[in-house]
Each structure stands twice: as structure tokens, then as C-alpha cells.
Amino acid sequence: MNATSLARDTQFSRRALLRAAGLAGAAAVLPLAGCGSVPSSQNGVTTLRFMQNKPEVVAYFNQVIKDFEALNPDIRVIQDFNEGNFVPGLVRNDPPDVVTRGFAQATADFVRKGVFADLSDLPAAATIDPKIQDLVSSWGQYNGHETSALPFSLAAAGVIYRRDIFEAQGVSVPTTWDEFVAACEKFKAAGITPIYGTFKDNWTLGQGMFDYVAGGALDIVDFFARLTAQGAAISADAAESFTSNFGPALPKMLELASFSQKGAASKNYADGNAAFAKGQAAMYLQGPWALSQLVAANKNVRLGSFPLPVTNNPADTKVRVNVDMALSITRNTPNMAAARRFVSYLLDPSVVNAYSEKNAAFSPLKEAPAVENPQITGLAASVREGRYYQGATTYFPPSVPLYNYVQAFVYGKNSQQFLSALDDEWRRVAERTAV
Amino acid sequence: MTTTSEMAQVSQPAASTVPPKATSRAIRSKNRIDPTYYWMVVPVLALFAFFITLPALVGVFFSLTNYAGYGDWKFIGLSNYVNIFKDPAILQSYIFTFVFALTTTVVVNIVALAIALGLNAKIKWRTGIRTVFFIPMVLSALVVSFVFNYLFSNTLPVLADRFGVTPLATSILANENLAWLAIVLVTVWQAAPGATIIYLAGLQSVPAEVYEAADLDGAGSFRQFLSLTLPLILGYLVINVILGFKGFLGTYEIIVGLTGGGPGMATQSVAMRIFSGFTGGDYSYQMANAVIYFLITLLISVIQLRLIQRRGVSL
């Protein structure tokens, strides 16, 4: 699961609401200029707080931290993987020193508000592939030039497929939309569900078929740049609107949905992982985060991935990527020197590449080794050649319940209603954030 | 009601027999209030003010700004409020919440009253059955809704498929028109025991003699319920309706556990929209929503309190 879906899923009880309200209250009451944060060093040992956004890789970072502390006895690092603490930390003016975040609209908001320090002069910054750094910078830079986050891992998502089922049916990896549809028809005729659908978890529809179809058919960066430039002046019939651009792509979503099993509406992500690992379908529209779950459910499963072709020109095919983890240092940390040393260590090729290899991710470094994991080799060419896009869902402000709208569209099949709802929501958010 | 009037009758003659000296001392001590009461009230009042009232006021303050929960902000006057009234998604959540609260209140009270009547009758294993009925009350709503989520999504469709009940063969949680009924059902399942307890207390306060008299007059059991039981427990009914309605307006965790506000936008309650402001960087906008919702519930509460006072019941 990537950062955005986590953020949307993190809806806890009313108690959490009260806690948040209380926090906001307390923060306003306590003297704001207060003590600020004091350098946390004792006996010459500096303590860093490191918040990372992926609970499934805690063990990996524990090992990294151990190695780092052995080399740097004057620094101690505490790992925190509860990303939900980040905003309260900001409100208390006591955020962690080093942060990793999935890069999307919400994180870009922090960048624009100047929460993170400039890392452009860090030697490690020069080792990062400028095209991947661009994925971060394209969201906007603080003061127009600062580097607020350095990519640590790049996740590429496409169609996960069962190599055994493809081989048994004599189907090769499709490179055009028509080939893809023909493959689905072939599976269907053989009594195999072509695509396993988990529509109950609406985020799987959002960053699955919606992002794939939109990203494959449109120039996402360009679309959102033009849309954002319009600000609150956007209307449904403007040339920049969702209605004017997304219409032709949407029927393909419904076609993908129709290749899913009966009762997909009552299956969630966990059901999907279990069923797909057991061989109940040939394909699964999920990213690399699902791979470890699939292997956990069936350790003999032979998986591959390919980018979903959305047009009939193989050269158009692109893969959905997201900067799964980007490293930042909070601007006001009192432990800047130690934090920079830690970030430099994390961006050491041995640390980055070991992480990528273990977690089916792509390395953001210029000198990235070739990907050997057969589960994701099918995506490697697209990533290497830069044929990728960041999912359309990641461009939405989190206050728009986008996944709910996507789900309503898949169920109700009313594309007109769906697109005008997106246009309305976008305009309303632009109106109230413009002031 | 009858007990209080009896008490008054008993205490009056007792007071008149007390010697005059003692009465004057009693009056003096009545004027000087025991400080213990202040010790009971003031700390709670301070805590309440600090943890509830103050944050609420801070929230009202921020609803007039464009604060995202962190970072810079500035005053923007009432435009958050103006924007809320122009937002059909917010309006839809209000409509859903009120329809849901009304339906659930009606169903909960009918079910609870029926259960209470049954449990109040002289049936076998009454204590055991009562315990079984009250179990839902001690379970966490989130746990209950996750269990029901599983039943609706997996068990029920399989059963319906086997017995050929096609409308139920796909999960009703995935149906935009029916999902809210599933939420009503689970809420009723969870909330009925609480209402049942109140009704049981009410039924036990009805003296047996009135039923004996009604029997002699030849009233049937339905007539007895309509003309005796219902009027005598009307105060309890009012309390149940008011507490229930107020609680259902704030519905949150059962929806989170069942549908997460979906499918589509079909079951987004107002509380869910307000909470989305915390994760969504939409803090001030949803704060304005919260203020509006507070005023609406305040208005409803005032109307209900007036109704209660007319009925002679106090909470």
C-alpha cells in the first residue's frame, strides 16, 4: 500500500478525532513561541528521530540503523513507523528529524509550506537520477529551487500476472490494448477469471484501473499542470477540465471491470491477495507492495509484471510509478549535522540497492544495477527508458474523496456524472485554498 | 411520579414535629452551601473547560481561517461557511445522516420495546435470556461492524446463492441503494440493548394492580398495552428517542467498519466528513462544517428538551 492509500485508510475512531482536536487546542493554548526543540544530545551522543512510512520494512531499517550506529558512535537513531504522528508533530513544533514519505499531493503540500530543509548541497543529491528527482520536483519546490526530498525508492506498478497460467494457456505478455483484451477473452473462454477484482477496497480501483487507464491515455503531468494553472476558474466545459479530457479513456475502465470475477464488489485487498495467490485469476492490477503478500500466501507462486497497454501503439505504453520513499530533513531540527550524516548514509548505494532488491523496488540512483527480480523485470525497460507517469490519483488533494467517486463510477457506469463530480470537487477545493 | 408525591406527604408531617430551634439551624445551614459540593464540581468544570470547551472554541476560531492543521494561515472570514453551503457532497452527507438517524431511532425503539415486553413477562430462563440480549452492548461497535462486514460480504452471498435468493447473492454493502440498510441493521443490533434496559426499568415501575383492574374491566392484552403500558412508560420512550437520535446523528465507527462511506458516496455521514478534514489538510473547512453541525444538533436538543419538560421528565 502506498502513502496516499494509507492516509485515506487511516480513519480511526472518534477518540482519534477528539485527540486530534485536543492536540490542536493544546497547541494553540500553550505558548506558541515556547521552548522550541532543544538539541537532544547527552554525553556527546545525539539522538535522531527517524520516521519512515512503511511498516513492512521496519526490520530492514533496524538493521540499517544498527550498522549506521556502529560506524557513528556519537549518533543514536530511533525508528518510528507511525506516519500518522507526523502532522501532530508539526503542530507541536516537535517533528522527527529525518522523515521518509511517499510522494504525492499531501507531501508536496508540506514542501510548499516549507516544512523540509534544503538538501541540494548534500553530496548524495548528485548521485540521484535527475529524471527521478524530477518526479519529486515536479510537485513544486520551496522558494522555487530547493530540494526538499531525495528519492530513496521508486515503486513501479502494472499488471501482476501468473506465469504458470499464461504458459498453460499459451498467452504471451500483451503489448497493445487489443492483445490485452484478446488475452482476457481467451482466459474467459477457458473458464479462468482474467482479472481478480477487489472493488470493495476502493483505493485498489483508484490506483489500479483508474490510474493505469488515465496514465496510459493522457499526459498526466501536462494535464494537471494546465488544470492547476486555471485555479478556481475551471468549469466542466473548459478545455482543461476532467470532462473534456478523461471521457474517451473511461470505457476502458469498465471493460477492465467486466473482466473481473463475479462478486468482485464484496472482495477486499486481503481477499484478493489470498485468492490470486491460490490461482483464482490470471492477472491482478496491483503494485509491488502486493508481491510479498502473494508470496506469503503461496511461496511457490511464479509471478511477473507488465505495464498495462492502453493504446494499440506499443511505444505508448507507460508504467505507473510513485516515489514510494523520499528522504527529508525537517527544516527546524536542532540536529541538522547528524541528520545530514544519517541521510547521506541511507543514500549510500549499498543501502539503497539492498533495499530495492529486497522490496521489489527500483533504485533512484544514476548507477542503478540491473533489476534481476523476475517479479518486476517486465517493468524494468519502461522504468529505464523513462516511460512512466505518476498516478492521477496522487495529484488530488486528500480532501477529495476520489476513491469513492471512482468506485461509484465502476458500479454506476455513469462517466458523465463521475467527471462532472471531479470537476466540481476540484473547483471547490481550488476556491477555498486560493483565498 | 407516584413515589415522589408519597415522599412529600411523608416528609411534611415529620418536619412539623421538629422543634423550632432545630428548624432555624437547618435553614441557616441551607443558606451556607457545603464546600464539598464545590470540590466535586470545580475540578470537573475546569477539566471540562480545558479539554472540551476550549478546544471547541479554538475550532470555531480556526473555522474562520484557512488553516490546514499546520503551517501558515490567515483569516478568511466566513468564506468556509459560504463554501459549505455550496458543496453538494456535504449536503448529501447531511441528508444521509438525518434519514439514517430517523430510521434507526424508529426501528431501535420498536425492537427494544418488543424485547423489553418479552423479557418483562414471566418466561422461562428469563435471566439467562436477558444476559444474551445485553451482550451486544458490551461489544465494541468497531468489532461488531467488522464481523457483520464479513457476514454480509461472504457468508450471506454464499447462502443466498445456494438457496436461489438472487437479490442477496451479491453483498448488500456493495449496493449503493441498500448499503445504508445494512448500517441501520447493525446499528439497531448494537443499540437496542441499551434502549431495552431503559424500557425494562420503565415496565418494572408500572404497578401490577393497574393490569389487574384492566383485566377485571375486560381489556385485551393489546388494549392494555395501548391504554396502560404505553402512557405509563411514555417518559422512558421520550428519553430513548432523544438519546438515541442524538447518538445516531454522530454515527461514525459502524460505517467505517462496514462500508467506509461507500459504495461511492452513498453512506458518508457528517462525522466522517468532519474527520476527513484532519487527514485531508482541510482542517478549517471541516471545522466550519463541525460548527454548523453543532448548531443544528444544539437546536434539535433544545426542541427535544422543551418536549421533555412538557412531559414532566428530566434527564
From TrEMBL, chain A:
<dbReference type="Pfam" id="PF01547">
    <property type="entry name" value="SBP_bac_1"/>
</dbReference>
<protein>
    <submittedName>
        <fullName>ABC transporter substrate-binding protein</fullName>
    </submittedName>
</protein>
<dbReference type="InterPro" id="IPR050490">
    <property type="entry name" value="Bact_solute-bd_prot1"/>
</dbReference>
<dbReference type="InterPro" id="IPR006311">
    <property type="entry name" value="TAT_signal"/>
</dbReference>
<dbReference type="InterPro" id="IPR006059">
    <property type="entry name" value="SBP"/>
</dbReference>
TrEMBL record, chain B:
<keyword id="KW-1133">Transmembrane helix</keyword>
<feature type="transmembrane region" description="Helical">
    <location>
        <begin position="222"/>
        <end position="243"/>
    </location>
</feature>
<feature type="domain" description="ABC transmembrane type-1">
    <location>
        <begin position="94"/>
        <end position="304"/>
    </location>
</feature>
<keyword id="KW-0472">Membrane</keyword>
<dbReference type="InterPro" id="IPR051393">
    <property type="entry name" value="ABC_transporter_permease"/>
</dbReference>
<dbReference type="Pfam" id="PF00528">
    <property type="entry name" value="BPD_transp_1"/>
</dbReference>
<protein>
    <submittedName>
        <fullName>Sugar ABC transporter permease</fullName>
    </submittedName>
</protein>
<comment type="similarity">
    <text>Belongs to the binding-protein-dependent transport system permease family.</text>
</comment>
<feature type="transmembrane region" description="Helical">
    <location>
        <begin position="178"/>
        <end position="201"/>
    </location>
</feature>
<feature type="transmembrane region" description="Helical">
    <location>
        <begin position="94"/>
        <end position="119"/>
    </location>
</feature>
<feature type="transmembrane region" description="Helical">
    <location>
        <begin position="131"/>
        <end position="152"/>
    </location>
</feature>
<dbReference type="InterPro" id="IPR000515">
    <property type="entry name" value="MetI-like"/>
</dbReference>
<feature type="region of interest" description="Disordered">
    <location>
        <begin position="1"/>
        <end position="23"/>
    </location>
</feature>
<keyword id="KW-0813">Transport</keyword>
<dbReference type="GO" id="GO:0005886">
    <property type="term" value="C:plasma membrane"/>
</dbReference>
<dbReference type="GO" id="GO:0055085">
    <property type="term" value="P:transmembrane transport"/>
</dbReference>
<keyword id="KW-0812">Transmembrane</keyword>
<feature type="compositionally biased region" description="Polar residues">
    <location>
        <begin position="1"/>
        <end position="15"/>
    </location>
</feature>
<dbReference type="InterPro" id="IPR035906">
    <property type="entry name" value="MetI-like_sf"/>
</dbReference>
<feature type="transmembrane region" description="Helical">
    <location>
        <begin position="37"/>
        <end position="64"/>
    </location>
</feature>
<keyword id="KW-1003">Cell membrane</keyword>
<feature type="transmembrane region" description="Helical">
    <location>
        <begin position="290"/>
        <end position="308"/>
    </location>
</feature>
